[in-house]
Amino acid sequence: MNGNSLAESEPVFRAVLEGGGVFTLQPRGNSMLPTIRPGRDTVHIVRLEGRANLYDILFYQRPDGRFVLHRVIRVEADSYTLCGDCQVEPEEGVTQDRVIGVVASIQRPDGTLVRGTRAFAVAGRRRLRSLPFRRLRSRIGRLLRGRAR
């Protein structure tokens, strides 16, 4: 998702979410592949009531101002650890005050994934379980690229 283009819409989506509405977004980045495909899928974001759950996808703002959609892979007492579904490096220490909303559903050509359903949880578990393998593949790739130089 290109977080910079969202900066202009920030007052609008914050007002929509604070008012209990739904903010619809078509992500542009690749970090949530294969769950969310840029240019194809649409996400519906709502205000997060209370704390996020494991496997939720949060819409949050990084300290540098960029807006990001990433999955909760660990819930701590005062923060979350988040990671994109195709990324290998988790982002630790994301606090509640940086969370803008939570993905309520993902509209895809083949159907809709809805937060809180079994299908949504299964997709999250699969991506979390694949993280060690994705890390290993990334390390092997870096090693091979280093030898090729």
Can you put this structure into words, describing what you see?
The chain has 149 residues and is of the alpha+beta class. Helix content is 29%, strand content 30%. It has four helices and eight strands. 28% of the residues are buried. The model has no long low-confidence stretch (mean pLDDT 91).
What's the topology here?
Layout (H helix, E strand, L loop, with lengths): L2 H4 L3 H9 L4 E3 L16 E5 L10 E5 L5 E9 L4 E4 L7 E4 L4 E10 L2 E4 L3 H12 L1 H18 L1
Task: Give a quick summary of the entry.
This protein has helices at residues 3-6, 10-18, 118-129, 131-148, and strands spanning 23-25, 42-46, 57-61, 67-75, 80-83, 91-94, 99-108, 111-114.
Give the CATH superfamily: Umud Fragment, subunit A
Structural class call reads alpha+beta
Mean pLDDT: 91
The CA-CA distance between the termini, in Å, is 32 Å
The number of domains is 1
In the CATH hierarchy, the architecture is Ribbon
Q: What is the ordering of alpha helices and beta strands?
A: HHEEEEEEEEHH
Low-confidence stretches: none
Q: So what's the CATH class?
A: Mainly Beta
Helical stretch tally: 4
Shape: globular
Percent of residues in β-strands: 25-35%
Number of strands: 8
**Helical fraction:** 25-40%
Q: The CATH topology is what?
A: Umud Fragment, subunit A
The profile of the biggest β sheet is:
8 strands, antiparallel
* Rounded radius of gyration (Å): 16 Å
